[in-house]
């Protein structure tokens, strides 16, 4: 009996220890605009913006439930829920969760929203281990101690995989560099008789000051950046948005309360200029 009691106590202590570890995350405050509320709006067709002022979250509404891309910081779960409900949709109708990249500013609330909704989390396979570890093993953010609540993927994806839900299809585009499993999404959205091809881009900004040769955890980083920049330059689409509102100049294109106008998100020139600037930075990076 004493042995059984001792084993029970040890198991209880281990559970508490594991629980405490899983809750211990280091989420820097970062840009104050990352947590600033922003009024949700319809981008085009069945695609909606439900994120914060700068951290973009996207809701794709289908006839069989909805898809949520990115969740911002851990503090943003309630804000995203409120934004979705403000648009007239049910938070509980989220069936699939996706992300552009495995960093705390895009996955902070993912574990919480997954638990609250019961949705399935799909991720680019190259970011799966970082998701499971809460960012602790990320080549740059892990080194800096930046982390998020670990989240276990339900499905691993690779380049050109198609994500299907109801009447909607998204194609995952593997765009590594920023993280090993960074990705963009390409989809068609219908707006009456008009069909728009929309890119939800992960802009491959360079986040490390270290020479690439000094990053043993990611030996292919330079090659991945070069591949991604070339692949993104060749993409064809009509509208584009990104993981950060500032990257696609949301607030200069649209003011809160503006009428529905998908055409403001064309801006191929802005997209090409952004990639050109990053290509220059890559050439000059040691």
Automatic annotation (TrEMBL):
Coiled-coil region(s): none
Pfam families given in the database record: Lactamase_B
GO MF entries: beta-lactamase activity
Keyword set, alphabetical order: Hydrolase, Metal-binding, Signal, Zinc
Major enzyme class: hydrolase
Requisite cofactors: Zn(2+)
Signal is among the record's keywords: yes
Domain Metallo-beta-lactamase: 54-244
Extent of the signal sequence: 1-22
SMART domains, sorted: Lactamase_B
Keyword Hydrolase attached: yes
InterPro entries: MBL_Glyoxalase_II (IPR051453), Metallo-B-lactamas (IPR001279), RibonucZ/Hydroxyglut_hydro (IPR036866)
EC numbers for this chain: 3.5.2.6
PANTHER family per record: HYDROXYACYLGLUTATHIONE HYDROLASE GLOC (PTHR46233:SF3)
Protein name per the record: Subclass B3 metallo-beta-lactamase
């Amino acid at each position: 009996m004493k042995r059984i009691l001792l084993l029970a106590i040890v198991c209880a202590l281990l559970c508490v220890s594991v629980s405490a570890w899983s809750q211990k995350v280091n989420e820097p405050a970062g840009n104050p605009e990352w947590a600033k509320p922003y009024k949700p709006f319809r981008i085009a067709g069945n695609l909606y913006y439900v994120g914060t002022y700068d951290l973009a979250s996207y809701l794709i509404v289908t006839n069989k439930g909805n898809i949520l891309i990115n969740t911002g910081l851990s503090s943003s779960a309630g804000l995203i829920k409120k934004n979705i409900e403000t648009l007239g949709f049910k938070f509980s109708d989220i069936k699939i969760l996706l992300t552009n990249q495995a960093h705390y500013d895009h996955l902070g609330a993912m574990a919480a929203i997954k638990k609250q909704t019961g949705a399935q989390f799909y991720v680019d396979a190259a970011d799966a281990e970082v998701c499971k570890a809460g960012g602790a093993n990320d080549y740059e953010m892990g080194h800096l101690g930046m982390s998020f609540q670990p989240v276990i993927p339900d499905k691993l994806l690779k380049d050109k995989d198609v994500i299907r839900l109801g009447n909607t299809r998204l194609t995952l585009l593997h765009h590594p560099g920023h993280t090993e499993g960074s990705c963009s999404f390409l989809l068609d959205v219908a707006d009456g008789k008009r069909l728009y091809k929309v890119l939800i881009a992960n802009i491959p900004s360079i986040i490390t000051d270290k020479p690439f040769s000094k990053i043993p955890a990611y030996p292919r980083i330079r090659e991945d950046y070069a591949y991604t920049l070339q692949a993104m330059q060749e993409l064809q689409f009509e509208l584009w948005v990104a993981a950060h509102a500032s990257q696609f100049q949301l607030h200069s294109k649209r003011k809160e309360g503006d009428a529905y106008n998908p055409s403001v998100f064309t801006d191929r020139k802005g997209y090409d200029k952004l990639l050109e600037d990053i290509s220059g930075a890559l050439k000059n990076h040691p």
